C-alpha cells in the first residue's frame, strides 16, 4: 500500500503539550490559539483535542474562524476569543455564536454593545503597533467602557489584552509596564477586568512576569519552540505535525543531466530520483530545492532542483526506494524525522510560517 501523502497531526502530542504548557504557566490559564487553521494543523480537530486536554478558552483571529468552530460543534461551554475584525463587522454573529470579541476601538466597542454581545475584551496596543487602541486613545475608550456599565448595557468588559513584540526582554517588560498603565486607567473609571492577558508562547515560557491571568499560546501547543536557541525537546514539547508523501515514481538520471526547472541542480554521478507530489501550490516554497533533506526509511536524502508547482525531486542514489514508499518531510526529530526548523532555516523563515503555509490542498488526518 502506498504511503500517506499529507499532514498527520498527533492528537496525543497536542494533549501532552497542552498539559506541559498549562503546568508551566499556572496559575495563569491558557487561551489555546487555533487561528489560521490551527497554524496549518486543522482547526476543528485541533480544537477538539485541546478541549479534551482541558482547554476552556480558544483564541482565533476573526469571527469567521470562531463561527467555523461553533458550527463544527465546539459548544459554548468553551469560550472563543476573536481579536481581528473587518471594518464593517456588526458583531451580531459574535452574540449569536457565543464568541467573545476583543475590541480595539470606541467604534468596535459601541458596535459590540449595540449587538448585545455579553462580554468583550479591550485590546490595547503596548508596542506592537498592530491592533489595539494606542495610548492616546485610552481615555476615550475607557470612558466609553465606563458609560456602558453606567447605562446598564448588557455588554461587560471582561478582559484586557495586549500582545508582545518579542523584540527583547526589556522591550517586552516595557510593554508589560504599558499594560499596567492601561489596567490603572481602567481602574480609575471603575472597571476591573476579570482577566488580563499579554503573553503568547515566547513570553509565557520565558518571561513569567508577563503571564498575567491568561497566556494565549499557539506555537508551543503544536510542539514547536518559539526560541531559535531551544528545541522542542528542550522545552518538553512534541511536534504534532508530520508531513509525509508517497514516492510517485523513480527516475534514472545520468551524470551531468539537469533536474527540474532551470537546472539549478545537475547530477554529479549516475543517480536515481524519487518524485513526490507536493509542491509550491501546496505551500512548499520553491526555494526549498537544494536546501533541505527528507527521510526515507532510516536515511536522509536531499531535495534537489527547484520545487515545482505540484512536485519535488529527491536524490536517492542507489538506495532501495520504490514507488509508494514513505518520504518524511518533517516531523518529530526525537523519532529521527527532519525538524521543521531545518525547512524554516533553509528559506530564512521561522517554524510558524512553514507549518502555517502548508496548503489547504494537502490532506490532514489526525491520529
Ligand atoms: C494576539 C495573539 N495572541 C497570541 C498568539 C499566539 O502566539 P504564539 O503562537 O507565539 O503562542 C498570536 C499569534 O500570533 C496572536 O496574534
Automatic annotation (TrEMBL):
CDD domains attached to this UniProt entry: PLPDE_III_AR
Necessary cofactors: pyridoxal 5'-phosphate
Cell cycle is among the record's keywords: no
Pathway(s) it belongs to: Amino-acid biosynthesis; D-alanine biosynthesis; D-alanine from L-alanine: step 1/1
Modified residues (N6-(pyridoxal phosphate)lysine): 35
Active-site feature positions: 35 (proton acceptor), 261 (proton acceptor)
Enzymatic class: isomerase
All copies of domain Alanine racemase C-terminal, residue ranges: 240-367
Catalytic activity reported: L-alanine = D-alanine
Annotated binding of substrate, by residue: 130, 309
Pfam families in alphabetical order: Ala_racemase_C (PF00842), Ala_racemase_N (PF01168)
Keywords in alphabetical order: Isomerase, Pyridoxal phosphate
InterPro entries: Ala_racemase, Ala_racemase/Decarboxylase_C, Ala_racemase_C, Ala_racemase_N, Ala_racemase_pyridoxalP-BS, PLP-binding_barrel
UniProt-listed Enzyme Commission number(s): 5.1.1.1
Family statement: Belongs to the alanine racemase family.
Function description: Catalyzes the interconversion of L-alanine and D-alanine. May also act on other amino acids.
PANTHER family referenced in this protein's UniProt entry, alphabetically: ALANINE RACEMASE, ALANINE RACEMASE, CATABOLIC-RELATED
Name the record gives this protein: Alanine racemase
Amino acid at each position: 500500500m502506498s504511503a500517506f501523502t499529507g499532514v498527520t497531526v498527533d492528537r496525543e502530542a497536542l494533549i501532552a503539550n497542552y498539559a506541559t504548557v498549562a503546568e508551566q504557566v499556572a496559575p495563569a490559564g491558557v487561551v489555546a490559539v487555533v487561528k489560521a487553521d490551527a497554524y496549518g494543523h486543522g482547526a476543528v480537530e485541533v480544537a477538539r483535542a485541546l478541549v479534551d486536554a482541558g482547554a476552556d478558552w480558544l483564541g482565533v483571529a476573526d469571527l469567521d474562524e470562531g463561527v467555523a468552530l461553533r458550527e463544527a460543534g465546539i459548544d459554548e461551554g468553551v469560550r472563543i476569543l476573536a481579536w481581528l475584525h473587518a471594518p464593517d463587522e456588526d458583531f451580531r454573529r459574535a452574540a449569536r455564536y457565543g464568541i467573545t470579541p476583543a475590541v480595539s476601538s470606541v467604534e468596535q466597542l459601541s458596535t459590540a454593545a449595540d449587538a448585545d454581545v455579553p462580554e468583550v475584551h479591550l485590546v490595547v496596543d503596548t508596542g506592537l503597533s498592530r491592533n489595539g487602541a494606542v495610548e492616546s486613545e485610552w481615555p476615550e475608550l475607557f470612558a466609553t467602557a465606563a458609560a456602558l456599565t453606567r447605562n446598564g448595557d448588557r455588554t461587560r468588559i471582561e478582559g484586557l489584552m495586549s500582545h508582545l513584540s518579542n523584540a527583547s526582554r526589556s522591550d517586552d517588560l516595557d510593554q508589560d509596564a504599558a499594560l499596567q498603565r492601561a489596567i490603572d486607567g481602567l481602574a480609575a473609571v471603575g472597571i476591573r477586568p476579570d482577566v488580563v492577558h499579554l503573553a503568547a508562547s515566547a513570553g509565557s515560557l520565558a518571561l513569567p512576569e508577563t503571564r498575567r491571568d491568561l497566556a494565549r499560546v499557539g506555537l508551543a501547543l503544536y510542539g514547536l519552540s518559539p526560541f531559535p536557541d531551544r528545541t522542542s525537546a528542550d522545552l518538553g514539547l512534541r511536534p504534532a505535525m508530520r508531513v509525509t508523501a508517497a514516492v510517485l515514481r523513480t527516475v534514472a538520471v545520468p551524470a551531468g543531466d539537469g533536474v527540474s526547472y532551470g537546472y539549478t541542480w545537475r547530477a554529479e554521478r549516475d543517480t536515481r530520483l524519487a518524485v513526490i507530489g507536493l509542491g509550491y501550490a501546496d505551500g512548499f516554497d520553491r526555494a526549498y530545492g537544494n536546501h533541505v533533506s527528507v527521510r526515507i526509511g532510516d536515511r536522509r536524502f536531499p531535495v534537489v532542483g527547484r520545487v515545482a508547482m505540484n512536485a519535488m525531486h529527491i536524490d536517492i542514489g542507489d538506495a532501495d526506494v520504490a514507488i509508494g514508499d514513505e518520504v518524511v518531510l518533517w516531523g518529530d526529530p526525537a523519532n529521527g524525522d527532519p525538524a521543521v526548523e531545518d525547512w524554516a532555516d533553509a528559506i530564512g523563515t521561522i517554524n510558524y510560517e512553514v507549518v502555517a503555509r502548508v496548503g489547504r490542498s494537502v490532506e490532514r488526518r489526525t491520529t
